[in-house]
Write a structure and sequence with these properties.
- The chain is mainly α and 69 residues long.
- The chain folds into 2 domains: 1-28, no CATH class; 31-69.
- Helix content is 78%, strand content 0%.
- It contains 4 helices and no strands.
- The chain has helices at 2-14, 19-26, 32-40, 45-68.
- The longest helix has 24 residues, at 45-68.
- It is elongated, with a radius of gyration of 17 Å.
């Protein structure tokens, strides 16, 4: 999984194509990528990442306020 994420990040960074186009280019109908994407589409990943980042920002602010006292 780690190498998949690293490889995907590098591909996105090096390409001038949008992530949507890259996904289209590597996804074969009925293939493994499509199976994974079908499963991921069942979840609201945008909200999950937003909640995660917001919690981290909120905690950072809390910690900053404690250090200022």
């Amino acid at each position: 999984i780690r190498n998949l994420i690293i490889g995907t990040s590098k591909m996105i960074e090096r390409s001038d194509l949008s992530m949507a186009q890259l996904r289209k280019n590597i996804t074969s109908k009925g293939g493994t990528t499509q199976a994974g994407l079908d499963t991921l589409s069942q979840y609201d990943l945008v909200s999950i990442f937003e909640d995660c980042l917001n919690a981290a920002v909120d905690r950072s602010i809390e910690l900053s306020n404690v250090e200022d006292q």
